[in-house]
């Protein structure tokens, strides 16, 4: 069993494609297939099932993946610790995020980080809130963006944005600037499945009303197109708003509702040097760009200052 075999297996499992995995690893597709086949032969089990619908982990493959990711994580830590010992800032940060943060928050941060730390690679995986949480807990990523609160993870606040109501420009409510969430209860509601659904449902529950959820969609472009056509109303965080607001009316909610965002990881103490550098820079960048109003330092913030 080799690290190359474990890396090939973990990468295919994470991206769900031999072709994409070969591009990520800089290997030929046949070399990736051969590595995994050799690993399966040595272990005498099938780790992956393949059919016309895609690639799936077997039950034993799921268990092996957890161990493989832990081994690869520790190897990367060794590389980064030894590099740090001789004054080199190198390594890799695997980052999980969801669309609104990927589009609005991350580009500026990642551009500045690359300028300051060209020896540290940041690999980005994008998914739903639930997928990002799963990636963090399974160590498929080193750190991920989450909407607070979350349990059993260490978090470092990075941003907050406001939940806003979105209606078509021709909607009767479009004449107003602010509305109570109850005023959306009579319209068909278009719900985002990307990750804010639990928060939005809780908002309606606190107002003691039930939304008339008519449609649910993952792609925000679909949601905004449906609102634009007058098929319903929606609530989204400010970072999710499209650049072109033609045909929409954006309304503030009363009382104001905020989404608090953070980077989360299982443990800052065991994080690699590259991850600690990334988190330190991310927090400073978020404050400099006014995504996050500086508050009294929490223990994690103090740990980052000292790392």
TrEMBL record:
PROSITE patterns: HTH_LYSR
One Gene Ontology term, aspect cellular component: protein-DNA complex
Keyword entries, A-Z: DNA-binding, Transcription, Transcription regulation
Example GO molecular function: DNA-binding transcription factor activity
Residue intervals of the HTH lysR-type domain: 1-58
UniProt-listed PANTHER family: HCA OPERON TRANSCRIPTIONAL ACTIVATOR HCAR, TRANSCRIPTIONAL DUAL REGULATOR HCAR-RELATED
Name of the protein this chain belongs to: HTH lysR-type domain-containing protein
């Amino acid at each position: 069993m080799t690290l190359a075999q474990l890396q090939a297996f973990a990468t295919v499992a994470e991206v769900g494609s031999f072709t994409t995995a070969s591009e990520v690893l800089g290997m030929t597709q046949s070399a990736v297939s051969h590595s995994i086949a050799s690993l399966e032969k040595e272990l005498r089990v099938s780790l992956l099932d393949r059919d016309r619908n895609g690639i799936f982990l077997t039950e034993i493959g799921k268990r092996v993946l957890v161990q493989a990711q832990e081994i690869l994580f520790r190897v990367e830590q060794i590389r980064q610790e030894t590099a740090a010992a001789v004054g080199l800032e190198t390594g890799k940060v695997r980052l999980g995020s969801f669309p609104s943060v990927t589009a609005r928050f991350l580009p500026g941060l990642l551009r500045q980080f690359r300028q300051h730390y060209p020896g540290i690679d940041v690999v980005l995986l994008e998914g739903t809130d639930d997928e990002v949480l799963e990636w963090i807990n399974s160590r498929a990523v080193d750190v991920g963006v989450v909407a607070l609160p979350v349990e059993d993870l260490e978090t470092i606040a990075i941003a907050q944005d406001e939940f806003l109501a979105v209606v078509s420009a021709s909607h009767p409510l479009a004449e107003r600037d602010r509305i109570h969430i109850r005023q959306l209860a009579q319209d068909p509601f278009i719900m985002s499945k990307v990750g804010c659904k639990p928060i939005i449902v809780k908002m309606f529950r606190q107002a003691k009303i039930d939304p008339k959820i008519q449609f649910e969609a993952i792609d925000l472009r679909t949601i905004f197109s449906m609102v634009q056509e007058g098929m319903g109303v929606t609530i989204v965080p400010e970072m999710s708003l499209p650049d072109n607001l033609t045909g929409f009316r954006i309304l503030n909610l009363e009382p104001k509702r905020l989404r608090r965002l953070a980077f989360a990881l299982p443990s800052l103490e065991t994080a690699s040097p590259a991850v600690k550098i990334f988190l330190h820079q991310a927090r400073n960048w978020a404050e400099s760009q006014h995504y996050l109003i500086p508050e009294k330092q929490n223990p994690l913030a103090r740990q980052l200052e000292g790392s």
